[in-house]
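thought: fold this chain, then report.
action: predict
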Amino acid sequence: MTDESWAGWYRDGNGSDAVVLTTDGQQLRIRIRGTDFEGESFDRLLPVPHAPPESGMFALADGALTDCVLEWDLPLPVLVAGAPRQATLGCLLSLRRADPDLHLALHLDGAVYESARAESDFAAALTAIQRTLPDGIRLQTCIACAFSDYFPAAGRGLSGTLACFRGAKDAYRGTAGEGAVLDLWDRRTGSVQEVWSCKEFETRPAEGAGTGHRGAFPQQPLDSVEPLEPA
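observation:
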């Protein structure tokens, strides 16, 4: 995967700073006030071991960045009547010690399609946006892909726990239900960010085989709790 970089802003009680978020679809990286943070989810951004922050410079909970606001824009591919187009996704994330609040806004052809103001995770926010889009417009990111799923459990994290099965496409096309995904889990390629997209994207089926554990997209919201990991 090739890295993507997204320009944005970081704000906390100490002020506001321009930042650049970088991701390869799995690992997120950001430098704030000379300190590097990285992690697989936006709510698990940890200082890298060789660059611990100065005391009091950042609020940390269990070692991860918290009590701050991240705001950034990223290019987001969509399909309009089956043809690829580029939209822009505005992201506003309030990282709080208890529950993060997320708001997404998709800008396309002068129109804006928004999630609720306080979504609990990227899957729910992108689902809300897909439901507001006119017929014939589909998101073209990992959350909408035919080869992605969550581990069969009670919930999911804020971001980055979506499993990719692009290395087992034919097998995943036959999945429907929790048991089928569990049987295939060890063949997953890895985890990906919900807003990521790759050249192997295929539109998720609306029902039946190939909808795995999480079902079609847009799917019904799940409670946003940490997913159980397989043994």
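thought: worth noting. The first helix runs from residue 122 to 132.
final: tokens above.
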